[in-house]
Amino acid sequence: LKSSFKFSETRKRRKDGKYIMLIFDVPVKNIKARNLLRSVLQNLGYKLFQQSVWICPFDVFEKTEKLLQMYSLEKYVKLFLIEEL
């Protein structure tokens, strides 16, 4: 499964080898917030794992939290650190 996700190696991977998993549930009426969230995730290096579930091997956990707060998206999102896919 891990090999099916191609990540750019230009970003710094997490030293602990863990992945960030982000799960979101943005109401349909907030389509702009949903689109903004997807854009933020893509820019940070996240890849779509399945609908509303994104993963990232890069060291961007704190940056993700800050951006979610900055755009008031944290109420729609759960963040996890996982050891393997």
From TrEMBL:
<keyword id="KW-0051">Antiviral defense</keyword>
<keyword id="KW-0479">Metal-binding</keyword>
<dbReference type="InterPro" id="IPR048846">
    <property type="entry name" value="PaaX-like_central"/>
</dbReference>
<dbReference type="InterPro" id="IPR021127">
    <property type="entry name" value="CRISPR_associated_Cas2"/>
</dbReference>
<keyword id="KW-0255">Endonuclease</keyword>
<feature type="domain" description="Transcriptional repressor PaaX-like central Cas2-like">
    <location>
        <begin position="14"/>
        <end position="81"/>
    </location>
</feature>
<dbReference type="GO" id="GO:0004521">
    <property type="term" value="F:RNA endonuclease activity"/>
</dbReference>
<keyword id="KW-0378">Hydrolase</keyword>
<keyword id="KW-0540">Nuclease</keyword>
<keyword id="KW-0460">Magnesium</keyword>
<dbReference type="Pfam" id="PF20803">
    <property type="entry name" value="PaaX_M"/>
</dbReference>
<protein>
    <submittedName>
        <fullName>CRISPR-associated endonuclease Cas2</fullName>
    </submittedName>
</protein>
<dbReference type="GO" id="GO:0043571">
    <property type="term" value="P:maintenance of CRISPR repeat elements"/>
</dbReference>
